[in-house]
Amino acid sequence: MTELFVLQTKPSLVILNYYMFELTVVESFSAAHSLRNYQGPCEKLHGHNFKVEATISCKNLNKLSMGMDFKEIKQILKDILKKLDHTFLNELPYFKHINPTSEEIARFIHAEMKSRLSNNCKMKCVSVWENDKSKVTYTEDER
What we know:
The chain is built from 2 helices and 7 strands, in the order ββββαβαββ.
């Protein structure tokens, strides 16, 4: 159960804090792509050694005091990245009509992971690094 703590009280002001656990795993894959209709060198076929960070949030801990076993989270991410690893992304069904940008790769991984998580845990975000200096993070607005 999510724990609720009253942090501070004043007349007519109560500040509440809900505690949740965030777990992050990191994996990588290599793939080629070309950015359709891009004006520049990335329109040509090129590749990256992508790094992927996936973060989930869990409300409760299991009987081992874990939100979810890191081993299980890593396996889910690895299974998804197997679909992308050493491929020409433009030829994959998801990217046939969607430009295989890092933004869209992050959205794809997020959706795939989200569909495989238990009720206790939710997808928070996925970050995709094209190189050591450039990353994109995808998250869904929960409004």
